[in-house]
Design brief:
single chain, mainly alpha
């Protein structure tokens, strides 16, 4: 492809990606940020033990969500556009219905196991609440196909409108039951369940609405082949997604054996804070993925991918540094300065090391989604779960929640380094390893050596914020200096029309 295009064309690609990233990021920060804003309300009305129980409920529901999606969300992003560039709107409704019925089989099996054996494992909460968590995860998965459909159609405003109102209505219901009706943690569970049910069927209406069927209707043979491809592509993703959510949640489930609910509540706060980094990563990834799937087969696809990857790594490493420096300030804001949560800041820094590796893994996994090597992804994420379980069982008896935090960091590190060797065999990208390594070392040095902020004055917090801005500028300057000049060719000069995807 020629690279002597005019400046307006050159800047169009950057503006397009940055504007969509900004919309996705704003939506993520609006919905998930509002969750952090409302969390002090829960902290004020719930005991630290109840916060730990709520964390277990959410852990179980999200594992079941990963199972119940059947990997169809990833399949929509990969197969919604045919090889000739045309789209199949009817695919969305078919997959929503198939998921509704097929996912009930594994979810029913999980519910039976929980009913007969859960009392031995879930010692911190009633078994009926565990069953409600399983049902909530099944219903939550009902929106996955529709949300993925909005992403691949590159409709960030529509996607964010849908997810925001889903969050707003569910949160209002939960707050009403917890605060106004004084239902405690049980009210939060009931509110999550009702919200998941309502939005599952709203998503079904959107997926099955007749006006969505505006594209060509595939021939029966083509439709059958498409579903076969989708199932071959999606089935490993069920395991991959389940393993990823196990990584996020199994540590808390295993910790029940070694720590009390108060320690689990502190760990939940720390993990919640560290997950802010994932908000940034998924926002950029949501805007990045459709563009990559369109242009991955182009001659300049790998270089375009590498150029966007530099932006991704700049943002996530810069945000990780800022979160590490400001961890104590954010924890105080989230918890209202309650003494019971004083240890969350130090825990969150260790978890941040793991979530940064998780962000790296997210970027390196994109080529495998495109090339269809979803089974490889499942194997790598399964390896991460095994490492996490082994380390938690080894470290938690002596180190408690701190051992679980280090186990999380070790699991994501193993997954990332395994992915480095795999991705080069599937899709060759000129990664800026020198830039990634240098910026990561800066993060690790700051995280391990910088003391937690103990001063509560506004002036001291302002100094830390200025340090964050300076370090963020250093990270961006470092990536610009280390970037291979050839990786800048494709990003700004790629065509506006989609490339062919095989």
């Amino acid at each position: 492809m020629s690279t002597n295009l005019g400046q307006p064309k050159k800047s169009a690609g950057a503006r397009r990606l940055l504007s969509r990233s900004a919309i996705f990021a704003f939506g993520d920060l609006l919905t998930k940020g509002a969750k952090y804003i409302t969390f002090p309300i829960f902290v004020a009305v719930l005991t630290v033990q109840e916060v730990g129980m709520l964390g277990i409920f959410q852990a179980v529901s999200m594992i079941c969500w990963a199972i119940a999606t059947l990997g169809f969300g990833a399949a929509v992003r990969r197969f919604y556009r045919n090889g000739d560039g045309r789209t199949d709107e009817l695919l969305i409704g078919r997959l929503w219905l198939i998921r509704l019925f097929v996912a009930s089989i594994p979810i029913s099996a999980v519910a039976c196991l929980a009913w007969f054996f859960g009392a031995k494992f879930f010692t911190a909460m009633p078994i009926t609440w565990v069953l409600m968590a399983i049902l909530t995860g099944y219903l939550r998965a009902g929106t996955d196909v529709v949300e993925s459909w909005y992403i691949i159609r590159e409709e960030p405003v529509t996607y964010r409108t849908f997810t925001f109102f889903r969050f707003l209505s569910t949160t209002a219901l939960v707050l009403g039951l917890v605060v106004l009706f004084d239902q405690g943690v049980y009210g939060a569970i009931i509110g999550e369940l009702i919200g998941a049910a309502v939005w599952c069927f709203i998503a079904g209406y959107l997926a099955l609405s007749p006006h969505k069927a505006t594209s060509r209707v595939a021939e029966p043979e083509a439709a059958s082949q498409s579903l076969q491809l989708i199932f071959r592509y999606s089935l490993p993703i069920i395991f991959h997604a389940s393993f990823l959510w196990m990584l996020v949640t199994l540590d808390r489930l295993l910790l029940q054996r070694y720590v009390d609910n108060s320690a689990l509540g502190v760990y939940e706060i720390a993990y919640m804070f560290a997950s802010l980094l994932i908000v940034v990563a998924t926002s950029i990834n949501s805007a990045w993925l459709p563009d990559f799937f369109r242009t991955a087969d182009d001659e300049t696809g790998p270089k375009r991918f590498a150029r966007t990857a530099d932006l991704f790594f700049c943002c996530v490493i810069g945000c990780a540094i800022s979160l590490s420096i400001l961890s104590s300030d954010f924890i105080v804001i989230l918890t209202g300065g309650r003494a019971e949560y004083a240890g969350a800041a130090s825990l969150s820094r260790i978890i941040l090391i793991g979530t940064l590796f998780q962000c790296f893994f997210m970027a390196f996994a994109q080529p495998l989604f495109f090339t269809g090597r979803t089974l490889t992804l499942a194997c790598v994420s399964g390896l991460g779960v095994a490492v996490n379980v082994v380390f938690v069982l080894y470290l938690a008896p002596s180190m408690g929640t701190m051992g679980a935090a280090w186990a999380t960091a070790a699991a994501y590190a193993v997954m990332f380094f395994a992915m480095i060797g795999i991705v080069h065999q599937t899709y060759r990208v000129p990664w800026n390893y020198f830039g990634i390594l240098g910026a990561s070392i800066l993060f690790w040095v700051i995280t391990i050596t910088t003391p937690l902020g103990s001063q509560s004055s506004v002036a001291y917090a302002a100094v830390r914020c200025v340090c964050c801005l300076v370090l963020l500028g250093i990270v961006f300057a470092w990536f610009r200096w280390t970037r291979d000049s050839e990786s800048e060719i494709a990003f700004f000069t790629a065509p506006e029309t989609p490339g062919e995807i095989q």
